[in-house]
# Entry
Amino acid sequence: MLAAAITTFTGCDKKADTQSANPQGGGKKLVVGFSQVGADNDWRVAETKSIRDEAAKRGIELKYDDAKDDMSKQLAAISSFIAQGVDAIILAPKVETGWEPVLKEAKAAKIPVILVDRGIKVSDESLYATLIASDFVAEGKMAADWLAKKTGGKANIIELEGTPGAAPAIDRKKGFADGIAAFPEMKIIAAQSGDFKTAKGKEVTETLLQKHGKDVTAIYAHNDNMALGAIEAIKAAGKKPGQEIIIVSVDAVKAGFESMVKGELNCAVECTPLLGPAAFDAVDMALKGDKFDKKTVVQDRVFDQSSAATELPNRKY
Ligand code: GYE
# Structure
């Protein structure tokens, strides 16, 4: 704690120098720290690429940190960016809570923090400049609506949840539950976290199929990678994914589209990871002191096997 406090003050001093020299003052390159939660699914890799490409396009120096899914590493990365006196920080937070102390450090050092892709819970909203993300409750609802239509309102569902405590896991669960509430014969018979990862999605599905095998008619996965893992588990159990078990997920990454074209994944609700341009626009505005919305909601669409083949060539991630 003490070390962090000291580095904050050092960061403060450096900040003053850097700011007078950054493009707002006309001079040196802008330096932005990007704290990414991890790199082990297609969505996250695409998001990192979008942010890297946009930084390069704008001639911004990007300091990148991959926290490898470890919250303490992510907190340390933010402290380190502050200590280095970056001009701004882009943060893709792992979970909703636990950010207050480090964001207070950033605020004290006058370093704006732009949240991308996942929201957080803090008592003081001035601790971050803005959030750029999808509406995850709406995504869950779209998945439920699609499944209700497909199954005529009758399904025994396994839910593969994202990382516990992460905004998309919490909100996609809520949106889906709201969506199926109107259908008494749509039931979630088991729900477990697959941590947004293919291997974990496969492992969890294997276990749940052993337990509930005969009853399962649908899977709702909070992201494509877990759905792809589930598809492997379904095949290994000798069942036909996409036919005997209907699978709906969120993200709509290329691999998800390919699976839909093969007739395996049934539906993918889009969640765009291409947040680089909006993130750096927000960095610019924050550094200029412009007033802007606390949240920018990214609009998502729904794709299924009927549109997958036509759309696949247009997909950018
Ligand atoms: O759906 C998932 C990732 O936070 C919106 O997290 C993001 C989600 C995305 O790991 O694949």
About this structure: Confidence is low (pLDDT under 50) at residues 1-21. The chain has two domains: 2-133+273-298, 136-271+306-313. The chain has eleven helices and twelve strands.
